[in-house]
Amino acid sequence: MKRNALIIIIAVFTVITTACGNRTSTQDQNILIAYFSLTGNTKTAAEHIQAVVGGELFTIQTVLEYSEDFQEVVERARYELANDVRPELVYSLENFDNFDIIFLGYPIWANTVPMAIRTFIETYDLSGKTVVLFSTSGRGDNIQSVEDLRGWLPDANIIDAFNVNRENIGNSQYLFTEWAANLEL
What we know:
Number of helices: 6
Shape: globular
Number of strands: 5
Order of helices and strands: HEHEHEHEHEH
Helix content: 40-55%
Radius of gyration: 17 Å
Oligomer: single chain
């Protein structure tokens, strides 16, 4: 039992010191952590990332709210995707041009990004910016969403793409913290 506690303490210390060491490399860069989150999982991931790299959090929120009923959300997501709908966003960023690095977080819907993310990336010019992708999913991976975003953002420098799915959501703090701490920005 004492051995397990010691291993956990060493692991936490390693993550914290690694995170602190990487933070200095991004101090002089303006970081935005923009995310769309319906259930709170992606929001939580964004907060874990912010704890490591700093930066400003920005919630991508649609004017028309999504239902709390899962099946209604699925139907709306499929409709928006099939009809190329761009949901209107609630908030806007007046200082977007000040950011060098954009962390872009989203849940995986219908194997890709929610259309609110399309609205966001078409609203702001991400050309020449470093865009770091992260996602959460019920199952599966983020491969299609990354391919889609690379196609939609040909002039952005897209690095890393990290996904945590339902089976690992309990370890998301550790997983996102470790991933963010090891990014080379």
